[in-house]
């Protein structure tokens, strides 16, 4: 088990109040992807005050940064996020939908907690290294734009993880346990721009070529493709520019975004080529032209059994976050706004029998999650270049949907504060395991090498793709 475990967890306890306050400040100042200037500056300032050396504009991304402490030895990366979501403004601590600002931004995925807990873990590991006199470096990576912006994938392209030995992360959830490999899909987001020819829709429609028709035909083609792709794959789309609001104009320009997901990279690339062919067909049918621009891309998560077992051992030793009566009473009010299916499926996601507790203190089994609930994360791209492990930690009511006002409402609650502190202890614990146990580090690296030797990697971010720094302004 963990060497000097009480020491590193005591460092978390002694510093937690500052990082709970940091989490709340970021909740109060939500920012969309690549616009997280307040959050990045606040976190960088907090870590500099703890003695970290800060590198700003990491990978030439204005809201990315790295904070490092220690010397020599293995390099442990602890990953943080801090971007919010559009249209999820919500008053904190209230179990009814009440936006603070109509149409405003809100932390509907708990990234205010995510980054703050990761920074807290980094501080605890730094202090532990100083206390025990071990060689080793801990780095906090401030990673922007996890929500559809693939910030970490661009950072991988920039090579900022090339000398890292192990990466550790977490995510707020309704349950606590190691995040399994099957919970992540590879994805690419592409923007298709169709250009046609404008004309009067009544007087001379035969002279026009409708870009909007091309978008609609593309959507039909993708819908027909869905029957003939792997059941785990997903394709979503959003109309970005329909050509305007005038129905008496043949629309000369239209833009649509398609998000293509699959269980593995090779499956995803095959689907991408099929979607591109459908776009070409829609262009041919409407006598328009089409161009394609990549906005983001993320690899599926690569597991690492030695690290997962070590992290699970830390979680089981810690137990659950130990929520109290007041925490559960507020969570029960949140559950009153949910459906029975919301709650049942939340348990099902982690292979757990449906229970009655509003907040969960239990630890789900290693590899207990079901692949049917898989989404995508840019942590997956990191996991292809560095042995990586991450966990979920309970911070909100069972059944709470991600990207919902209910999650935003719980983002500053005492339960959220307990959860983020718990996550910091788990991450600091596994980091200390790696730093103090060369056998564990060697086993993690050997498993990673075996996987990579059999699985060539192409970053879903193409070599010509640039971070979509103005993406949030178009959402």
What does it look like?
By secondary structure, the protein is α+β, with helices and mostly antiparallel strands. Helices cover 40% and strands 18% of the residues. The protein has helices at 5-28, 37-49, 111-132, 151-157, 211-225, 265-286, 305-318, 325-335, 340-349, 379-383, 405-409, 414-436, 438-454; strands at 53-56, 65-71, 75-81, 136-143, 166-173, 177-178, 186-195, 199-200, 234-241, 249-250, 253-262, 289-298, 388-394. The strands form three sheets. The chain has a seven-stranded mixed β-sheet with strand order 1-2-4-3-5-13-6, sandwiched between helices. A four-stranded antiparallel β-sheet has the order 9-11-7-12, sandwiched between helices. Strand 1 (53-56) and strand 2 (65-71) form a beta hairpin. Helix 1 (5-28) packs antiparallel against helix 3, helix 1 crosses helix 12 and helix 7 (305-318) packs across helix 12 (414-436).
> What would you call the shape?
globular
Work out the helix count.
13
Give, in order, the helices and strands: HHEEEHEHEEEEHEEEHEHHHHEHHH
Number of strands: 13
Q: Structural class, please?
A: alpha+beta
The average pLDDT value, as a whole number, equals 94
Strand order of the largest sheet: 1-2-4-3-5-13-6
What is the C-alpha radius of gyration, as a whole number of Å?
23 Å
């Amino acid at each position: 088990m963990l060497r000097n475990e009480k020491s590193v967890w005591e460092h978390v306890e002694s510093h937690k109040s500052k990082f709970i306050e940091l989490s709340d400040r970021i909740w109060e100042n939500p920012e969309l992807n690549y616009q997280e200037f307040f959050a990045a500056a606040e976190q960088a300032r907090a870590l500099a005050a703890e003695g970290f050396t800060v590198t700003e504009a990491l990978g030439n991304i204005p809201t990315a940064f790295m904070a490092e402490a220690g010397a020599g030895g293995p390099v442990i990366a602890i990953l943080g996020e801090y971007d919010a979501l559009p249209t999820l403004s919500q008053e904190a601590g209230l179990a009814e939908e009440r936006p603070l600002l109509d149409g405003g931004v809100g932390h509907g995925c708990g990234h205010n907690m995510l980054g703050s807990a990761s920074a807290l873990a980094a501080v605890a590991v730094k202090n532990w290294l100083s206390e025990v006199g071990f060689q080793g470096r801990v780095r906090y990576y401030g990673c922007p734009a996890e929500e559809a912006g693939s910030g970490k994938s661009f950072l991988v392209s920039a090579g900022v993880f090339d000398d890292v030995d192990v990466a550790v992360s977490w995510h707020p959830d309704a349950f606590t346990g190691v995040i399994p490999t099957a919970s992540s899909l590879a994805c690419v987001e592409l923007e298709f721009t169709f250009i046609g020819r404008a004309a009067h829709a009544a007087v001379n429609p035969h002279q026009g070529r409708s870009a909007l028709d091309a978008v609609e035909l593309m959507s039909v083609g993708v819908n027909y493709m869905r029957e003939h792709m792997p059941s785990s794959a997903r394709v979503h789309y959003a109309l970005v520019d329909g050509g305007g609001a005038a129905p008496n104009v043949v629309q000369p320009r239209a833009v649509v975004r398609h998000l293509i997901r699959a269980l593995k990279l090779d499956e995803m690339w095959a689907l991408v080529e099929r979607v591109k062919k459908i776009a070409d067909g829609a262009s041919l049918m409407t006598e328009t032209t089409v161009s394609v621009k990549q906005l983001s891309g993320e690899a599926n998560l690569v597991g690492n059994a030695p690290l997962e077992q070590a992290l699970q051992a830390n979680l089981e030793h810690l137990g659950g976050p130990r929520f109290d009566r007041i925490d559960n009473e507020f969570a029960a009010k949140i559950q009153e706004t949910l459906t029975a299916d919301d709650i049942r499926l939340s348990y099902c996601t982690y292979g757990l029998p449906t229970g009655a507790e509003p907040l969960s203190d239990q630890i789900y089994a290693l590899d207990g999650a079901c692949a049917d609930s898989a989404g995508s994360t840019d942590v997956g791209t990191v996991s292809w270049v560095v042995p990586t492990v991450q966990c979920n930690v309970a911070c909100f009511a069972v059944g709470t949907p991600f990207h919902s006002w209910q999650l935003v409402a719980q983002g500053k609650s005492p339960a959220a504060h307990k959860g983020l502190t718990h996550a910091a202890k788990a991450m600091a614990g596994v980091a200390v395991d790696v730093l103090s146990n060369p056998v564990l580090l060697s086993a993690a690296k050997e498993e990673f090498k075996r996987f990579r030797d059999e699985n060539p990697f192409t970053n879903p971010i193409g070599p010509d793709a640039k971070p979509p720094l103005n993406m949030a302004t178009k959402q």
